[in-house]
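User: Some background: our group keeps a shared notebook of sequences we're curious about, and every so often someone picks one and asks for a predicted structure to add to the entry. Today it's my turn. The entry only has the sequence so far, pasted here. Could you supply the structure so I can complete it?
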Amino acid sequence: IVVGSHARNAVPRIWEGSVSRGVLEEAAVSVLSVPSLPSTSSREPHPPRSVLVATDFSSVGDAAVGLAYCMTADGGTVHLVHVVPCRHSDSLEPFYVSQSAPRDAALQERLHALIPAEASKRHLTSELHVLSSHDAAAAIYQASERLGVDLVCLGTRARGRVTKALLGSVAERVVSLSRRPVLLAPPEIE
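Assistant: Of course. Here's the predicted structure to add to the notebook entry:
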């Protein structure tokens, strides 16, 4: 499902409601939320050449990795991201890329293991990013802006009003922050 999204803050969203939010909460399939573009923008649609996908190494997060590779145009780049929680005082920045800690080497190996075998056949480049942050959604959003990706891909735990709190965490926050299209992949239906 592809839905457009207005960049409204919380008060108008509560007062007026949000069709895209309703679809995100209720859909049992993947949903692509595309933020509105300025009227002066004349971007031609094209397959994404640069996709950021974040995983927490859960089955849901890892499934989003496969979807991100499927969505990326041949010859494109997939940025595999894992956010390590840290205390607020651990970092002066909202996030930072850490490449020297032994823990990060192990996490990068886990990210590398998620790269599908067909990625090399399609000439896809994979870049691995281990980020530390007290706010995973902000770290993902900031990385997507810094890297200038065409699409952000995230797994979501569940859908529906009863489980709204689960979507209300990282995925919903990234959708509300992002000025880039965000593809949300729900868990597979068994």
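Suggested note for the entry: The radius of gyration is 16 Å. Residues 8-17, 162-168 have pLDDT under 50 and may be disordered.
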